[in-house]
Amino acid sequence: MKALVKVTLKNGVLDPQGKAIHQALGSLGFDGIDQVRQGKLIEIELAENDAAAARTQVEKMCEKLLANMVIENYSIELEQ
């Protein structure tokens, strides 16, 4: 089973990388962009076949290592 973990900054947290991407896109001629927020996508291959157990395991990974719970949110998508 594969888990896709999307980690993003919480609303209100400054995003200097997103700001730099926004400015670079503008300098390349891409208009009409109000805001850019940068995040990360983590793919994890799991030996677990039970979706509920896999989700619980990945949630623990996020809370202990993959996401900074003070400033980041995460979402999990499981694929068979």
Describe this structure in a few short sentences:
With 80 residues, this protein is α+β, with helices and mostly antiparallel strands. 35% of the residues lie in helices and 29% in strands. The mean pLDDT is 97.
What does this structure look like?
The chain is α+β, with helices and mostly antiparallel strands. It has one domain (2-67): Phosphoribosylformylglycinamidine synthase subunit PurS (Mth169, Chain: A), CATH 3.30.1280.10. The chain contains 2 helices and 3 strands. A 3-stranded antiparallel sheet has the order 2-1-3, with helices on one face. The protein is elongated. The protein starts with a strand and ends with a strand.
Structure class? alpha+beta
Widest sheet, order of strands = 2-1-3
Q: What is the CATH H-level superfamily? A: Phosphoribosylformylglycinamidine synthase subunit PurS
Number of strands: 3
Strand content: 25-35%
Query: What order do the helices and strands follow?
Result: EHEHE
Proper CATH architecture: 2-Layer Sandwich
Largest sheet: 3 strands, antiparallel
Report the principal-axis shape: elongated
Determine the CATH topology: Mth169, Chain: A
Average of pLDDT: 97
Name the helicity range.
Answer: 25-40%
Rg, Cα atoms, Å? 16 Å
Low-confidence stretches: none
Q: How many helices does DSSP assign?
A: 2
Number of domains in the coordinates? 1
Intertermini distance: 5 Å
CATH first level: which class? Answer: Alpha Beta
